[in-house]
Amino acid sequence: MRHESLRGLLLLTPALVILGVTVAVPFLFMGAMSLWTQIGFDYADDWSLRNFTAILTEPLYTTLLLRSLGMAVAATFVTVVLAYPMAYFLAFHVRSNKLIWLIIITLPFWTSYLLRVFAWRVILGYEGVINSGLMELGLIGEPLQFLLYSRTAVIITLAHAWAAFAFLPIYVSLEKIDKSVLEASADLGEPPLMRFFRVVLPLSMPGVIAGTFLMFIPTVGDYVTPALVGGPDAAMIGNLIQLQFGTVNNWPMGAALAITMIVAITLVGLMFLALMYGLRRWAR
User: Fold this and answer.
1) Total structural domains in the chain?
2) Which of 20, 74, 27, 101 is nearest to 263 (CA)?
3) Could you read off the pLDDT of 237-252 as tens digits, one per residue?
4) Residue 275 belongs to what domain range?
5) Residue 39: inside a domain, yes or no?
6) What's the rounded Cα separation, in Å, for the pair 21 and 18?
7) Whether 227 contacts 178, CB under 8 Å
8) I need a labelling partner for 234 at 20 to 30 A (CA). Which of 37, 70, 99, 121 fits?
């Protein structure tokens, strides 16, 4: 056992070193930078919590953070709800050529992220596919204003741009379910709907949780999508962080905003895990 543990540690060492160098060290440096204070083009020598105090007391920062969390939750919910039926169909109803189906489903994600965002600008634009089609059908008299440069556009684009990160974990989790368990449940007289809620859904929850985190975490800090398809009311915390590091050149405030966002994501993630644990105990 001692040799097996040592062998496992040796196998993990390269990955741990890479993570330490590329993730932990920059994170520690960013945490130290967040305690600096910018004065003109220079930084103050003493460390303080002025940046975090400003974030907690300034309504602009809290508004953008809460808006980002809300839009990320909405995009994640929409994506998981739409991805689950697709993954369920592929896992239980497609008997052959599953690889071809996987390629077809994930084919849009082979293109650049920016190209997909620009494609949604074309689709949701005032003279885009949706508005032009509805006007041709006579359903609307003028283009719908809320489709582009709005929170709706950002949520739709985020839901599509990160859909594969929610679909694949759910599909893998459903694919690994032992079909004999479903057969045993059917033999015991469980109706199909109850069989889904009492057998399939609980066994696939690891994939749902993994897909939720893989979808939620990157969408909170996304700044490209709000900049391209969102308007002033759809700006997110990522746009402000990019502004601090780029245009304003206030790196300490940008680092403090990034740390605050990470803490907020962690708290929301822990609340989600606690909710899932409570639902699991209640289902038992």
Assistant:
1) 1
2) 27
3) 999 999 998 888 888 9
4) 59-283
5) no
6) 5
7) no
8) 37
